[in-house]
Model the fold of this input.
Amino acid sequence: MLSHVEITARVEVTPAAHFVWSNRLEYSHDCFVCRRVGRTVVLHHGAAHGLCHSSRHQLEWQDDLDEVGRHPAPIRITGFDTAGDISVQTLRCRLSFWWSPFTDLKRPDERAAELGAKRWVRLHYRVGCHTCRDTGEDDWFGEQKSLQSNMVWPVTSSCPRCRTELVTMSGPPEINLVG
Ligand SMILES: [Zn+2]
Ligand SMILES: [Zn+2]
Done:
């Protein structure tokens, strides 16, 4: 059956922050294809399928794997909405995937679920510093950063150069099954 999960993230930004979400994320998924619970799938907005990362020895009965044990998975990003104003940036992302009940191939006592028991997500973003931009710093638009469910909240991030506070995240992204 076709299932959908919605991920919602909210970040408070200061006026000095130049904030952009990445179109890439990692998500914990009970993967119907390799029949393992809690795999990491890598998703790009616009890609036709996700990529499930599993170790090769667990999957040697499958022949469509590349050399490090990844396989295409029937999960993709079907909605990606960002919105923001002077103080808040939000991301709402819908994942759609083909799923059917199974028990874990290596741990038969673990039953898979559409929404995994130990679900987590890792989101990526870049944040630049207007203070550094205005003083003429070339690389004011910072490096790629990420936030993930298992961080210790709240998370505050400041400019590594001038220490201006840029973003605050009060809690983990929400992950919900949707109809
Ligand atoms: Zn898989
Ligand atoms: Zn700065």
In short: The two ends are 12 Å apart (CA to CA). The pocket of zinc ion (ligand 1) is lined by residues 31, 33-34, 36, 39, 52, 54, 71, 73 (CB under 6 Å). Residues 130-134 form the longest helix (5 residues). The chain has one helix and twelve strands.
